[in-house]
Amino acid sequence: MVLFSFVCHRAVFDAQRIMAIFSRSCYTISMLVVLGYVLLSIGAQYPTRTFAALDQACDGNKYFAGSEFERNLKRVLYYLANNGSNFGFYTFQYGRSPNRVFGLLQCRGDTTPAECRNCSQNAGIEIRETCPEATGAIVWYDQCFLRYQSKNFILGITSESYVGFICDNLVAPNPEAYRSAIKDLIQSLATKASVRSSRGFAFGQINADPFNQTIYGIVQCLQLSSVNCSKCVSDAISRTPKTCFTKSGGEVLSSSCRIRFGRDKFYDPQFSSQQITSVQKPSSYSKEKTPRKMTLKLVIILAVLGVALLGSVIWLLKFTTGSKMNEAPFLKTVTDDEEEAHENTGHAFSQQERIFFKLKTLKLATRNFEEQNKIGEGGFGPVYKGILEDGREIAVKKLSVKSKQGKTEFMNEVKIVAKIQHRNLVKLLGCCASGMEKLLVYEYMPNNSLDKILFDPERCRILDWQKRFNIILGVARGLLYLHEDSQPRIIHRDIKAGNILLDQNLNPKISDFGMARLIRGDNTQLKTRIAGTYGYMAPEYAMMGQLSVKVDVFSFGVLILEILSGRKNTDLNLPREMQILLQWAWGLYSRGQALDIMDSTLGDLMCPEEQVLRCIHIGLLCAQADPTARPPMSSIFLMLSSNSIALPTPTIPGFVRVTQTEESLAFNRKAAAGLSRTSAASSSTSSHSPLVPSSRNDVSITQVEGR
């Protein structure tokens, strides 16, 4: 009886709790419905603008599908859509001739950034659908204008450019009076739009006597100094049929300006040209407006009710069953523009690549993180090889409980690597965060990290000269993308041989972004805590915490010398004069014996001496003590790619002490290179000179330890 009483009491208690939760859910749904109706009522007074193309024009020339021109076009449309909304006007060009693409986007002066972004994204899709494989195209929307071309049209727009028009052509009682009033209004607006402060946009109204009819109009011209707004408007009017300028209204679309007029006020004069206006389109554009509004209302109401009902069900399940959803997979959202941008680097997202992994999936793939599947260990924790159910090989990086890195580094790596895609950057397939477990899932690199091969006396023989040069070039290409082409730009902070992974063809990929930093805006130099690996850190960063892209350049210079010499940046088992790689390499370079830096295993192979010397020279340029003397990655990549570019004389590397003998040898090398004694002596007092006597402080920071 006691047990039966307890069961009944428990059942009644659970029923009461469920009813209370259900009543609260009903109340919440009711409030949401009321709120949705209020919002819809407000929205009815301020209708949302639709995005339908007004007109388009296509170039007769064609490009081939999958060609370099198409990849450049995708990149241009991606950047126009993502950056144009911030300014309302944006130009971008990408690629090399003859496949270079020039693009331009301009939004109407009274659109909001959100409207501009939506319009530009629709325009990017519309222009490729209506003009497939065309090397040039233009599309006009009510809110924006988009154009691309294989030729540089941006600074060469003339009055002979395309002109189109949209008119109802309804007959007016006195067409000449209307035509004269419209032209007067448009010409006056063109004069206002020509003023720099107006940013090419002006609106206004005029009365068409003797009918006392008010006509409203706008004029917008491209914000380019080479385009005369008044001249463009005059040419557009002269090439438009007279029957277009009637009281019914119309629109004239030119390659460098646009005109719109009509009896209905489609803007609100109380707002400035940079603010959103309440738009009521002319009758020719407002057909079937009421059914569309009713459909939109119905969709929003149903969506609100569906979300509220789903939330209530989940809430009930959570409180009644106490089940947890820590290991539920979450889809990673990828926009169409991001997918198109990633295709430019030869990468496309698959459905399996869009997920966060379940912990049990990774345990099954790695056989519960079996020790035999362990392929390495770093500052983050151990790395295991795994095989998914579909046969894909993966590398699972597991956050160690003892690791100095934690949630911040884990989230930092997920956030950064998920945004970037490049053939020389390791690909993040997903991640898992379940309870105390935090794991990152990468593509598997069969040849592991560069240091495992480069510093192995036997395995290093597979790295002939061409393979080593390709690794140097690939790492340079990846850093160039991080520093200049990714949005936002990224400083890696830990470039070293252990973070360069090699695929089956020994192609390099930069990994480990746990300590990477984003650069936003004009922040070219940051002050931050020191994190990295001794021996690769630039002096200004290791000693003062000054962080810039030149820190990665210094690390890359050390990496180049390691690849060329086949030895670590610091090795205490070597003779004293050879223990520090930079000190040893600088001494050989100063004595004219730079080729002695080359790995002895390359001695039996055919190595182009000029190319080897050039790489040594570039490595020393990157490792200079003065960060302002180090070249940017764009210049470094050009130096590596072309033998015709002259190289500047390197100055003293970081953490290197120069002896008197090395000073005189360096002086003689400058003199032999054609420099006068006066210039050499004057440069010896500069912070950029290799002849600067170093401090006699014996304190060394060559401490060998992991992050």
Index terms:
18 helices, 21 strands, 38% helix, 5-stranded antiparallel sheet, alpha+beta, 6 domains, Killer Toxin P4, Chain A, 707 residues, disordered N terminus, elongated
**Level-1 CATH class name of the largest domain:** Mainly Alpha
Radius of gyration: 33 Å
Strand arrangement in the largest pleated sheet: 1-4-5-3-2
Q: Name the shape in a single word.
A: elongated
Structural class based on helices, strands and sheet pairing: alpha+beta
End-to-end Cα distance, whole Å, is 66 Å
CATH topology of the largest domain: Transferase(Phosphotransferase), domain 1
- Per CATH, the superfamily of the largest domain is Transferase(Phosphotransferase) domain 1
Proportion in helices: 25-40%
- What is the CATH architecture term of the largest domain? Orthogonal Bundle
Number of H/I helices: 18
Average pLDDT across residues? 74
Uncertain regions spanning at least 5 consecutive residues: 1-13, 38-50, 271-293, 319-354, 674-707
State which percent range the strand residues make up: 15-25%
The overall number of domains is 6
SS elements, strand count: 21
Main sheet properties: 5 strands, antiparallel
Describe this structure as you would to a colleague.
The chain is of the alpha+beta class and 707 residues long. The chain has six domains: 70 residues; 85 residues, Killer Toxin P4, Chain A; 117 residues, Killer Toxin P4, Chain A (2-Layer Sandwich); 108 residues, Phosphorylase Kinase, domain 1, CATH 3.30.200.20; 208 residues, Transferase(Phosphotransferase) domain 1 (Transferase(Phosphotransferase), domain 1, Orthogonal Bundle), CATH 1.10.510.10; 36 residues. The chain is built from 18 helices and 21 strands. It has a five-stranded antiparallel beta sheet, with helices on one face. It has a five-stranded antiparallel beta sheet with strand order 6-9-10-8-7, covered by helices on one side. A five-stranded antiparallel beta sheet has the order 11-12-13-15-14, with helices on both faces. Strand 2 and strand 3 form a beta hairpin. Helix 13 runs antiparallel to helix 15. The N terminus and C terminus are likely disordered.
